[in-house]
Amino acid sequence: MRILSLALPLVIAASPVTAGLISFGGSWSEQRLQLFSSNDYSFNGGSLDIVSDGAVSLAWTRTGRGDWGARVASWNWAVDQSVPATDLRLKGGDDRNISVYFVFLPEADAVNMENANIRQLNGNPNVRILQYVWGGNHSRGDVQQSPYAPGQGANVILRQAGTGRNSESVDLDHDFATAFGDVPGALVGIAVSADSDDTNSMIRASVSDLAIL
Predict the structure, then answer these.
(1) Which residues pair with 211 in a beta bridge?
(2) Considering only the top CATH level, what class is 16-28+39-212?
(3) Which InterPro entries match (predicted)?
């Protein structure tokens, strides 16, 4: 799994999302993380369907200024076909069914980078990324520094690898403090990914009713 900071330089439209329930609509774009590998995403308004066949990529949207102060998030997600359990602390072999990302910058940086694409955002040393994960072999609530960008990215484990349907509600303030020892800045972006390339396996999954407050 390559986290956001290793993404290829595709430009992402800076379309805002609406505070509250977030539509999986025209403001979302796919970001490849490998040149010849990507997932299949179906944007259905209230839901996002994902098929990942030995691949990895993410879908991403910018947030508007009215959403920068969001500190709570909730969503439903489902996995009908799962990757094997992996160790998410290791580079390579760290496949997971779904990650939901929340991307933060200090407000001054957020203002200066309001029209930046995803590669530019991740080139900022002040970026911080919480990744809520369904996958791996770790316990619910574990918080791990990303092996790809320790100090900038962190995994928050919500579900181990496997199938099922679940609802989540997360406290971004609390988890940010646990991961980074600080308070979050502006929530400038949200992303969803699936990662099956290392285990050459298949994921069929969905995320729906994503909301921030």
Answers:
(1) 21, 74
(2) mainly beta
(3) DUF3047
